TrEMBL record:
Membrane keyword on record: yes
Lineage top rank: taxon: Bacteria
Bilayer-spanning residue ranges: 12-30, 42-60, 97-126, 138-157
DUF1468 domain: residues covered: 47-160
Protein name: Tripartite tricarboxylate transporter TctB family protein
Swiss-Prot/TrEMBL keywords: Membrane, Transmembrane, Transmembrane helix
Pfam families per UniProt: TctB
InterPro entries with a match to the protein in the record: DUF1468
Length: 166
């Protein structure tokens, strides 16, 4: 695409994905508001939808990249340092699989051992998988995540969570 003296490269895949997500969020917000305008109905939906739509407005300009004559003349062997690559090393793939398995175990164990212990174990396992080795930090951060999550959910949602300790 050319505007004035500048050429722009459009990332159509990224643009279509974020536009689709924004459209679904906007539709969901309108649907929730059409049902009821009470605070209980919109307590979580409206702020999260507005935040998601604001993030869409921040992401949208990143789908358009200005291409100058200098950049077009670059050799294809030069790598763009901001270009995202999918991890292909075995250790990175194993780490992603371990995080996925630990998330699946947490979801399975929520009702078995309680929300509090499952969230604590998941946050500790995720930190350990990502490389944290200091036990005090593992314990303190996992405890903080657990407390904020459990008491935050209890304050916002009247869902009877099965907890073992909290």
């Amino acid at each position: 695409m050319r505007i004035g003296r500048h050429s722009y490269d459009i990332d159509y895949g990224h643009l279509s994905l974020v536009t689709f997500i924004a459209a679904v969020v906007f539709w969901y917000l309108l649907d929730a508001r059409s049902v009821s305008l009470s605070v209980n109905n919109l307590l979580l939906v409206q702020p999260v939808a507005i935040f998601a739509l604001a993030m869409y407005l921040f992401i949208l300009p990143q789908c358009f990249h200005r291409v100058d004559a200098r950049e077009a003349a670059k050799s294809p062997t030069q790598k763009d340092p901001l270009h995202v690559t999918i991890p292909s090393e075995r250790s990175d793939v194993m780490r992603m699989l371990a995080l996925g398995v630990s998330l699946g175990l947490m979801v399975f164990l929520l009702d078995v051992i309680g929300f509090d212990i499952a969230i604590f174990l998941f946050s500790a396992a995720a930190m350990a998988i990502c490389g944290e080795r200091r036990p005090l930090r593992l314990l303190l951060f996992s405890l903080g995540v657990t407390l904020v999550t459990i008491y935050g959910f209890r304050a916002l949602i009247s869902y009877p969570m099965h907890t073992m300790l909290l």
